[in-house]
Design a protein that fits this description.
Layout: E1 2-8, H1 10-13, H2 23-34, E2 38-44, H3 50-61, E3 69-73, H4 76-81, H5 85-102, E4 107-111, H6 129-148, E5 151-153, H7 176-196
Parallel strand pairs: 1-2, 1-3, 3-4, 4-5
Helix pairs in contact: 2-7, 3-5, 5-6
Domain SGNH hydrolase-type esterase: 6-181
Pfam families: Lipase_GDSL_2
Protein name: Arylesterase
């Protein structure tokens, strides 16, 4: 049985939902239906920033003798807090490097995010700083994926962001139906990765 590890924040954890409703659990269902020999582990922690992930990555990696596929989904809370993009990039690179050192054979999938606000007229405030931040934030994930030559999910929340019926009342976290769409977004990229593994 191969090991598939999801490492992320509340989007991965399935905030306020049953464990079976999180997108990693939904992906396990797709894995089983496809007859692939993988067990998915959900290491999502609600509220976690990339800095928090950097602090806990080594302890998580040590729990596994082998990791075949590692899915990294962090950065949403960095965007919400306006953490400098350079810091987020450095933290995510640290995590990617840690995975490569501990499990050099692992295939890595990086999950992209986009700045979670509808900027609208706000983009013109502050000399356009908010708009610049959004552009830099949105670009950092693809740049990291290309730099590290890893598989890339362009936008985890595609089709879910801003859709009231697919989110919890807070308007930020996907509900159970929204998590199904997250699973579909990730599965498009992940399925070929799993099928290519020996």
């Amino acid at each position: 049985m191969h090991t598939l590890l999801f490492f992320g924040d509340s989007l991965t954890a399935g905030y306020q939902l049953r464990a079976s409703e999180s997108f990693p659990a939904r992906i396990q269902e797709k894995i089983d239906a496809a007859g692939l020999a993988y067990k998915a582990y959900n290491y999502g922690v609600s509220g976690e920033t990339s800095a928090g992930g950097r602090q806990r990555i080594s302890s998580v990696l040590q729990r596994f003798d082998t990791i075949d596929v590692f899915v990294l989904e962090l950065g949403a809370n960095d965007g919400l807090r306006g953490i400098p993009v350079r810091e987020t990039t450095q933290n995510l690179q640290f995590i990617l490097d840690a995975v490569r050192r501990a499990h050099p054979e692992a295939r890595v999938v990086l999950v992209g995010l986009e700045f979670p606000f509808d900027l609208g007229p706000l983009a013109t405030l502050g000399g356009g700083r908010l708009g610049n931040y959004a552009q830099e934030f949105n670009a950092l994930f693809r740049q990291l994926a290309e730099k590290n030559a890893v598989d890339f999910v362009p936008f985890l929340l595609h089709g879910v962001l801003g859709q009231r019926h697919l989110n919890l009342p807070d308007g930020v976290h996907p509900n159970a139906e929204g998590q199904k769409l997250l699973a579909a977004n990730v599965w498009q990229v992940l399925q070929p990765v799993l099928e290519r593994q020996p």
